[in-house]
Design a protein that fits this description.
heterodimer; A: alpha/beta; eight-stranded mixed sheet; six-stranded mixed sheet; globular; B: mainly alpha; Arc Repressor Mutant, subunit A; two-stranded antiparallel ribbon; 4 helices; 8% strand; elongated
Chain lengths: 386, 93
């Protein structure tokens, strides 16, 4: 890809958050958009994620984002011209404590009041939705059938291809090493392959955003945390007909349309490999713990072969919620970080950020996602988080 | 001259044909991992044992990059599939 020294906007990061931002900037009429990516599109968190999306959140803004994301996924093939492996098989949230079930109940009431017809269900219905499931020790469940999954690689690549058609330039294997700032304004980026001058820079580098902030002396409140996942060989399709997820149980299990089963959990449920949490890596402890969860929750998986394990980087923020907006310190420098849900929120967050950059306002007010809330001593509260 | 055979399957796990691979290399997906993400080559149970060399050679031919300079893609554990019930018993017992 030919190098160009100027752009109307530079987007840092080729995951779902960055790629969708670049796509929507171009779609809204910006002529000269460049996306720089340290490796290649979908090589960071998006391509390593659990592949799922949901409207079952516990706060108004997240539920609204979730609803809009479901609409985006349902129309992504038309929007981008590529099959994205959409499969809406619902999310079954499994609660193991009274407190967790109470959070489900309050969240379902809030979701229902906002036009999301999720519902609390009982053990019998949970067993009907996922025959063979062992939920004897669970206390309650919530379920919404329009929640689902899609192929993160294809969603990301579909937006890359659509963005290219609109003239966006993708510079892969290009690492940002510095930001150009003068007079309180962003002036461009310095990269491993040269400089690009631009009046707008969007940092959408997931867990690595903090390093971008450091280049401008700004504290982007993001740290990386490695999470692991595994996938099995392809088996009969109805082994796990819906997404199974529990916050207290600390697991998710789901089956892709090709028959493979993906499962994962948080990093504190097992003995981790002894290395830097910001570096990818695989641990035996994860494999053992997740196999035990599969055996307990879905005993009929016992003879299925686990074929791969991998890891990805969560972009943790102090309240595990998005941090999105223009920095107060440097005009033209934007942060677009999802708080561990970039695949899910990317298409909507990218569009809203593009609207704010181009029009000065967005269809949905997401000012509550601005991270200046931390300086004001506030946190964004939503208990339906991993 | 014999005609080039059609529908050559390169990745047997995911049933990906040579033509598709060439098409995406020409779109700029010129590393193994990029092709893996868009076509699923190497994502099946064999982990690319069958297709990786063929694909790297094809990338080299179409881009003119020496094969040694093309990133060969990630290898992931386990080397061979492990049954859930076996993994659940733990590694050191």
């Amino acid at each position: 890809m030919e190098w160009q020294k100027t752009a109307d906007a530079v987007v840092i990061g080729g995951g779902m958050m960055g790629t969708c931002t670049a796509y929507h900037l171009a779609k809204l009429g910006m002529k000269n958009v460049v996306l720089v990516e340290k490796k290649t599109v979908a090589s960071g968190a998006t391509g390593r994620c659990g592949a799922a999306f949901r409207a079952q959140w516990g706060s108004r803004l997240n539920i609204e984002m979730g609803k809009r994301c479901i609409d985006k996924f349902e129309h992504m093939q038309e929007e981008t011209g590529m099959d994205i492996g959409l499969y809406q098989n619902g999310y079954l949230m499994i609660g193991y404590t009274e407190k967790e079930v109470e959070i489900f109940r309050e969240s379902v009431a809030l979701q229902n009041s906002m036009g999301v017809p999720s519902r609390m269900i009982d053990h019998d219905e949970a067993r009907a939705i996922c025959p063979g499931i062992n939920v004897d020790d669970a206390l309650g469940f919530s379920y919404y059938e329009r929640d689902g999954q899609a192929d993160p690689f294809l969603c990301n690549i579909a937006h890359q291809e659509a963005a290219k058609r609109l003239g966006v330039k993708f510079q892969k294997f290009t690492e940002v090493t510095g930001l150009k700032v003068a007079g309180g304004r962003i002036k461009g980026v310095v990269t491993s392959r040269g400089e690009i001058d631009a009046p707008v820079v969007v940092s959408a580098a997931g867990a690595w955003n903090r390093h971008i902030g450091d280049m401008a002396g700004i504290d982007f409140p993001v740290v990386g945390e490695r999470h692991e996942a595994l996938i099995t060989e392809a088996v009969d399709f109805d082994v796990c007909p819906t997404m199974l997820m529990s916050f207290v149980g600390d697991y998710y299990i789901q089956q892709r349309p090709n028959g493979t089963i993906i499962a994962g959990c948080g990093p504190n449920a097992y003995t981790k490999a002894d290395h830097d949490p910001e570096v990818m890596g695989n641990s035996w402890g994860f494999l053992e713990r997740t196999a035990q969860v599969l055996l307990k929750v879905l005993p009929r998986t016992r003879n299925i072969g686990i074929t791969h394990q991998w890891s990805g980087m969560y972009d943790l923020t102090p309240d595990l919620q998005p941090c999105i907006g223009e920095t107060d310190e440097i005009k033209g420098l934007w942060l677009n970080v999802s708080g561990c849900r970039g695949f899910m929120f990317g298409a909507v967050a990218g569009e809203l950020v593009a609207q704010m950059i181009i029009r000065g306002s967005s269809d949905l007010d997401i000012s509550d996602f601005h991270w200046r809330r931390y300086a004001q001593g506030k946190k964004f509260k939503d208990l339906m988080v991993v | 001259m014999p005609e080039e055979p059609q529908n050559i399957v390169v990745c047997r796990c995911e049933e990906v044909e040579l033509e598709e691979i060439r098409e995406w290399i020409d779109k700029g997906y010129d590393t193994f991992d990029e092709l893996k993400r868009v076509l699923r080559v190497g994502m099946g149970p064999c982990q690319g044992r069958g297709c990786r060399d063929i694909i790297l050679r094809e990338i080299s031919r179409r881009t003119g990059t020496p094969i040694a300079e093309i990133p060969c893609g990630t290898f992931r554990p386990p080397v061979k599939a492990i049954k859930v019930k076996v993994a659940a018993k733990g590694g050191d017992r």
